Amino acid sequence: MELLSVNVGRPRPNPWKRLEATGIDKRPVTGPVAVTAPGPKGNGDVGLAGDRVYDVKHHGGTHQAVYAYAREDLDHWERELGRTLDNGAFGENLTTAGIDVNSSLIGERWRIGADGPVLEVSAPRIPCATFAGWLDERRWIRRFTEQALPGPYLRVISPGELRAGDALAVVHRPAHEVTVALAFRAFTTRPELLPLLAELEALPPEDRAHIRTRLAR
Questions:
Q1: Nearest to 104 by CA among 89, 114, 90, 94
Q2: CA–CA separation, 59 vs 208, rounded Å?
Q3: Cβ(35)–Cβ(66) under 8 Å?
Q4: For the purposes of burial, counting CB atoms within 10 Å of the CB of 13, is it exposed (0-12), middle (13-18) or buried (19 or more)?
Q5: Which of 35, 93, 148, 158 has minimal Cβ neighbours within 10 Å of its Cβ?
Q6: Which of 88, 30, 96, 17 is nearest to 58 (CA)?
Q7: pTM score of the predicted model
Q8: Which residues is 161 bridged to in the sheet?
């Protein structure tokens, strides 16, 4: 399991949400990149040095510090869409190889590199209008949702530096069976699965609040 590329965003206009900019245009960078916990959502900070988000209400902060997507899943989408998808094409900070990121467990921890950062899987990525506009594919949100290959957001447990080629090791797996893919389905197409997520402390607080509200209806 390894890190194929580290991808940092370039600001560009965001007509899809009528915001000043978006950081979804991620490009691979060379050399080490510092990873630190960004603090609460609301100011655009994320985990990777040199990157940021601009939809500060919905993105960034502690529980969305880093976004990872597997090269294997990008390859799947290349076949589905009939187009090339470079590393970073889905707006991911980390493009991985050799790990099924959607089968990772909520609360699972990864170490990147021998002395690199430790990251914890926090939640699945939920597609938004910016993502749909950026990919410019018909019915994109629906197609992405149907495939249930969302990739995980991660929080920073301990800081460090990472770079392309670093080994990725799973250093902790919690004692439950809620995967990123299962959580994604619970939040999107299969709300009957939400009770399985109700006791997961590793989920972001806003997700836990959403689950409590849904289950109280």
A1: 94
A2: 16
A3: yes
A4: exposed
A5: 158
A6: 17
A7: 0.96
A8: 34
Quick one: the chain helix, strand, coil %, rounded to 5? 25, 30, 45
pLDDT digits (tens, 9 = 90+) for 123-149: 999 999 999 999 999 999 999 999 999
100, 107 Cβ separation under 8 angstroms: no
Residue 193 buriedness (CB in 10 A; 0-12 / 13-18 / 19+): middle
Amino acid (1-letter code) at residue 26: K
**pLDDT at residue 98 greater than cutoff 90:** yes
Question: Under a CB-based contact definition with an 8 Å cutoff, are residues 74 and 89 in contact?
Answer: yes
Tokens of 48: 């990777």
In the numeric block, which tokens belong to residue 11?
């600001």
What Cα–Cα distance (Å) separates residue 154 from each residue in 29, 71, 76?
A: 20, 17, 22
Cα 173 to Cα 166: distance, rounded to the nearest angstrom = 20
Q: Spell out the residues 6+ positions from residue 71 whose beta carbon is closer than 8 angstroms to its own.
A: 4, 87, 95, 96, 97
Of 43, 45, 40, residue with least CA distance to 63: 40
